[in-house]
Amino acid sequence: SLTKAQNEIEAAKSLDELEKIRITYLGKKGVMTDLKKNISKLPNEEKPMAGKLINETSTQIENALAEKSELLKKELLKEKIAEETIDVTAHFEKHDSGHLALINQTLEELETIFQNMGFDVVEGPEIDTVKNVFDDLNSPADHPARSTSDTFYITDDILLRPHTSSMQIRVMEEGKLPIKMVSAGRVFRNDEVDATHSPMFHQLECLVVDENVSMANLKATLETFIKEMFGDDMELRYRPHHFPFTEPSLEVDATCPICRGEGCPACGNTGWSMELLGGGMVHPNVLEACGIDSEKYTGFAFGLGVDRIAMVKYGLDDIRLLYDNDKRFLEQF
Ligand code: DAH
């Protein structure tokens, strides 16, 4: 029965099988245990010999079991390691993964540039009050932008903001000085949709208020920004303008980023981009409306057309491309 046990152990393919063999031979009702019990029935002189033989055989079976068990465990480990290795050459089905829309990529890029220049990025609501959007921004009572034909009103006092300039008021009213912030987001105007107009578009508002803030700070900020965004060879052109909330006010164009000033169809051969932003020195009335001493503090502000920046940067001739969700367009960026 030793050879039989050894053969069975040899053939065993799993630890479970091995355990069954152990029970068959060495278990309480196993073959060897039975033999031991039967020793008492043998003649006295044969007993020691039989006992010795049975014990030796049991030990041999035990050893064989232990050896085989070790072997099986090693094999199991090997199999497991083999299973867990990653086949880096394996072929797999590639899935389309989404990404930020071009306008959101542009917003993030703008915010990063201003963050790197030390500006706080502030979030604000798309629905705001007439007070924040017009009154405190020094807009005259008869300003055309106040009319319901230009701006979407929700009630007499609440509207969809037509510009991000309302964020200037919100931040100044918090009462912490100095201020150095940008705030970007959606704005809404009652405009017909065409290649350059959309009833919803994006602006980035910038506001700096401190002692001794001057027009030179505004120009330096804008020039650093435009070079970061489009490259070192960009220049800005300042044109006088009028806004109720700044004095003096200006509009700014940049070198056409497509022809870099040489003249091309995109810029109508002028070498200059379309108007990118409006800005100026914060009007003292605006500072005072927010409880800021306009004798002590001055500020500059500007509002940037984010969609225009995206159009100019990526050479788009139609603002609708940004909002149509045409996959052929989206996949290019
Ligand atoms: N709010 C103006 C607009 O929507 C843009 C603007 C002009 C923002 C001058 C400013 C500013 O902060 O100082 O066209």
Question: Which geometry do the CA atoms define?
Answer: elongated
Beta-strand portion reads 15-25%
H and E string: HHHHHEEHEHEEHEEEHEHH
The helix/strand class is alpha+beta
Specify the biggest β-sheet: 7 strands, mixed
| Mean residue pLDDT | 93
What is the tally of helical segments?
A: 11
Poorly predicted runs: none
- Distinct bound molecules: 3,4-dihydroxyphenylalanine
What descriptors fit this protein?
two-stranded antiparallel sheet; elongated; binds 3,4-dihydroxyphenylalanine
Task: Write up this protein.
Keywords: Aminoacyl-tRNA synthetase, ATP-binding, Cytoplasm, Ligase, Magnesium, Metal-binding, Nucleotide-binding, Protein biosynthesis. It comes from Anaerococcus martiniensis. InterPro entries: aa-tRNA-synth_II, aa-tRNA-synth_II/BPL/LPL, Phe-tRNA-synth_IIc_asu, Phe-tRNA_ligase_II_N, Phe_tRNA_ligase_alpha1_bac, Phenylalanyl-tRNA_Synthase, tRNA-bd_arm. Residues 113-331 form the Aminoacyl-transfer RNA synthetases class-II family profile domain. The strands form 2 sheets. This protein has a 7-stranded mixed β-sheet, with helices on both faces. The chain has a two-stranded antiparallel ribbon with strand order 2-3. The longest helix has 38 residues, at 47-84. It has helices spanning 2-11, 15-26, 31-38, 47-84, 102-116, 130-133, 166-173, 215-230, 284-289, 306-314, 327-330; strands at 120-121, 127-129, 158-160, 179-188, 200-210, 236-243, 246-254, 277-282, 298-305. The two termini are 77 Å apart. By secondary structure, it is α+β, with helices and mostly antiparallel strands. It contains 11 helices and 9 strands. Residues 163, 165, 205, 243, 245-246, 278-280, 301-303 line the site of 3,4-dihydroxyphenylalanine.
